[in-house]
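Running log. JK asked me to keep both predictions on one page so they can be read side by side. First protein, sequence followed by its tokens:
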Amino acid sequence: MDKFLEMQTFASVVDTGSFVRAADALNMSKAAVSRYVADLEQRLGVRLLHRTTRKLSLTEEGRAFHARCKVLLDELEEAESEITASSAQASGLVKINVPVSFGILHLAPLWSDFMVQNPKVTLDVTLSDRVVDLVKEGYDLAVRIGSLHSSTLISRKLASTRMILCASPGYLAKHGAPSHPADLASHTVLAYSLLTMGEHWVLEGPEGKTSVQVHPTLRTNSGDTCRAVALRDQGVILQPSFLVQDDLRSGALIELLPQYRSAEFGIYAVYPSRQYVSAKVRLLIDFLAKALGNATWCA
């Protein structure tokens, strides 16, 4: 008696909606599929499927059992995939999409190390701040920064970063430093146009969350541009710690309103499915998680 094969056959019948299509999917005869489902029902002592000449439908017991079968079968496939990936030699092409600034500053220096460790893997790295459709555009993996919305994609957190309000000493010498978030409304602001909060900057401090509408003199979809202009004493920026950390340490930029905190975002590896993850993709995700795991951007 093969309980696994019975469950697999039953799940395939339900998923394909037909004994004939299930037989094709499993490379079995229709008679074998029918026998496995019948044996399963007999062993459980319940009817799982209503059968007519035109269609199949699940009984209440069948619906509950199918849900449990799917979980068990998915977990088994994932376990087999992990073992296969860990034992297989990584080879082939990995197509990756990464954010522009983060990709240049923090990922570009890592690719060579991965290539040395995995000489049979070819990397195809695209830099873009656009949210790509991994499946439609053929990407194996993407690195994304922000709050992930619910989707069919699988994610693994690699690190995190927080948004920091800052300006140059030269700008502050001319215009003074804000003492409260509300003061930002009268300051020169250099705004990143893809920021999810838009031009209503939200900071959380002693009195809770405060939102202020800023009035940018520069809008750009490039965080690097905001930073470069701020370094020339032209305004206040709200940028991720991974981008401005070196400037803050050197004193080229000064953090403003440190008693107020802005958003913190996760940095994630996202990929289309947890099933049959290839060795090359799994190894790359593990490599990135280890390489970025000790990042100090949120300090």
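And the second, directly underneath as requested:
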Amino acid sequence: MKGLLDKSILKVLVYFDMFQYPVSIDEIRFFIDQKAGEDEIADALKHMILDQRVYRIDKFYTLRNNFKLIERRIKGNIYAGNLLKKAYAIAAFLYKFPYVRGIGISGSLSKNFADEDADIDFFVITKKNRLWLARTAMHMFKKLTFLVGKQDWFCMNYYVDEDALLIEERNMFTAMELITLLPACGNGVMGRFFDVNEWARDYYPRYEELNHSSKRLTHDVWYKRMIEWLLNNKLGDSLDNYFLRLTSRRWKKKEENFKLNVKGNRMGLRTGKHYAKPNPRFFQEKILMLYQSKLNDYDITEAMAAS
């Protein structure tokens, strides 16, 4: 049992080590893939520290004996706390766009870390068959944010509509994104989204303990209701399909031309009638391969995906 617990602890430390992020004992207990008490985890960590497999610096645990990582984390946590206030305010604004039904905060900010170059990433749920109308309107607005240098505050990266709440890629990376996703506002659909994706418990048993429902159900403003009323017809159907085709063509060209974003990463988007999401080949799969490689160093095997 102790050997299994050691491996489970190492899996948490290895995952966060990829992002140079030391973790507390509470975080280890939260992200561990088995249910274990704090005393059990503390005892296991004590022996792992004696064996010099793990280092404790201040109240954090890490695979690297480097105090600068602790300084980086603390500074990032403070900056994230301030940025989260902006993120919730921006989410409330984005919810006013037509056909938006729920918004969550994702990315590093949802994990309570940010640096001065951090983006504010959003996960968006839209009304069924109106994703592309909503996304196009929101991204037209985003173009205006470039004029004032605030485009990094409006990274709407991942869209699904009410007909595609189940996340297709079931692996440790997407499970981590699910368990850390912060519901910001919505009409209740965020709660349904988390319920549908209970498969994440296979990776993080504490997923089921979370209250994922948005604490603040958000009311639609009058002009949002009016625009939706005007487009709840065949015209709206045609426009949604048109914007899907247009966006798919544009992103296909970007991938074919190996376009990079400002941070030097490959640009890619998977598109469908009910979703618009980053191409997993350009980041998600890279993280999973690196994670498996690091686990191999500790003779730990991990299922990268669940069927």
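Observation for JK regarding the second prediction: The first helix runs from residue 2 to 17.
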